[in-house]
C-alpha cells in the first residue's frame, strides 16, 4: 500500500513538473538539437577523411631499428645496408599483410622526432603501392612537394604518387606522414610505361666517405674540400632492382644502353639532345628552377627512365624539397660563375637543349602558369591542407617565395646589357665586331643594323653560349658611307622570340 501510494505520488509530481516546464524543456531540446547539428557539421568539415595505416613491429624489430636510429643520430648520417630491413605487419582498411621495413633518409632530420622515416616493401598494394616511403611532411616542406609532383604530372612528365596519411605504430598514434611512391611494377602501370630500367647515380660511397670523416672527428664544414665522392664524375651508374634486372637478358641490355648514354654524356662524347628526351628534360629542369625545386637537380637525386622506344632518357622528379636551395641561383644555371654543378653545365653546353630550357623557364616563370595550376588543384590543395592543419595549423603554400623566385628569373632573362659589342677593325668591305658576353645568357646574333634601317647578316650564324665567352663576328658590305656611331646589333636570347638591339661601341676592346 505504501509502495503504491509512493508511486502514484511520484507520477503526479512528474506530471506537475512536465506541465509547468514542458515549454522550457521543448525550447531547450530544440537548442540542443541545433547545437548537435552544428557540432556534426563542424566535425565533418574540419576533420577530413585521412587514410590510416597501422604498423605492428615486434620487440626485436623495434630494438634493431632503435640501435640503427641512435647510431645515425650520433653521426647525423644514416648509413643503409641490405640487411637493415626488419619483418613487420601492416593493416589498411581491415586488410593485414606482411612487410619489410627499414629506416629511411640520409640526414638526422628524418629520425630526430617520433616521426622517423621508413622505407616499406609490402606483399599487397597499399593505396596502389607495394613499395613506398613514410616520412615526416616537414622533410619535404609539407604540401610543396605534393604540388611539385602534381605540376610534373600536369606538364606530361613522370611523377611519383604522394599522399598524406595517419600512421599508427604498435597502437601508438604517430600523426600525419607523407607517403611517397617508390619504384615497382605499379609505378610503370600507372604511368603507362613499358617496363624498362630506371637508372641513377649511386651515392653510397659519398655517405660512407662522409661518415669516415665524421668518425675521425673532422668538422663537417672543414671536410667538404677533401671529399672525393662529392661529384657526379666519381659516382657509379646503376639501376633500381639491379639484382633482378641483371637476370633478365632484355632488361640487362636496356640497362647497358641507358648506362652508355649517360656515360657518353658525362664524357662529353654525346650532347644532351642525343641522350635525353629533348622536350621532357628541358621542361623538367626549367620547372624545377621555376618552383624552387633545385634539390631535385642535385646529381644524387636524379633518376632517369630509359624509354626503349625513343632510346632516350626521361627525368623522374624526386626529392624536390622546394625552396631548400638559395634563391640567388634562380635563373642562373647557365652562368657557371654562380653554379658549379657539372651535370647542369654539361646540359647547357648543348644549344638545342638550352634553347628549349630557356623557352620553358620563361613560360613557367610567368604568373599565369602557377596561378592556373593552383586554380586547377584548388580543391585538392584545400583537402590536403585540411589534413596537415590537424597537426600544423600554421603551414601554407610558399606563394610569397614562389613569387619572388618568379620575378628573379624574369629579371635574369631580361638583362639591361647582355653583352658588349666592340668595333674591332674594318678591312676593305669587311667589319669585325668583337662580342663579349657578360651575363651568361646564350645570345643569338641576327644581324648588324645601320641607321635603324639597313640590316646586314653575319657571314656565319653565331650563338654565344655561357659567360665568359668572347667571339669576333664578321659582316661584309660597304660601310664607308655610314657613321660608326650608328651601328647596332640585333639579337635575341636563345629560346626567346623577342628581338632586341645593342649599340656597337665604336672602338676596339684593346
Give a written overview of the molecule:
This protein has helices at 2-46, 59-75, 143-154, 185-190, 204-215, 220-223, 242-245, 249-266, 280-290, 342-347, 351-364, 367-376, 378-389, 399-412, and strands at 52-57, 86-92, 95-103, 118-126, 129-135, 162-169, 172-181, 198-201, 237-239, 303-307, 312-316, 419-427, 430-437, 443-450, 454-456, 462-464, 470-476, 487-493, 500-505. The protein has 14 helices and 19 strands. Helix content is 36%, strand content 24%. It is elongated and about 90 Å long. 32% of the residues are buried. The chain has three domains: 50-193, no CATH class; 194-414, no CATH class; 419-505, Immunoglobulin-like, CATH 2.60.40. The chain has 510 residues and is an alpha+beta fold.
Please give the structural blueprint.
Blueprint: H1 2-46, E1 52-57, H2 59-75, E2 86-92, E3 95-103, E4 118-126, E5 129-135, H3 143-154, E6 162-169, E7 172-181, H4 185-190, E8 198-201, H5 204-215, H6 220-223, E9 237-239, H7 242-245, H8 249-266, H9 280-290, E10 303-307, E11 312-316, H10 342-347, H11 351-364, H12 367-376, H13 378-389, H14 399-412, E12 419-427, E13 430-437, E14 443-450, E15 454-456, E16 462-464, E17 470-476, E18 487-493, E19 500-505
Parallel strand pairs: 1-6, 12-19
Antiparallel strand pairs: 1-2, 2-3, 3-4, 4-5, 5-7, 6-7, 8-9, 8-10, 10-11, 12-13, 13-17, 14-15, 14-16, 14-18, 18-19
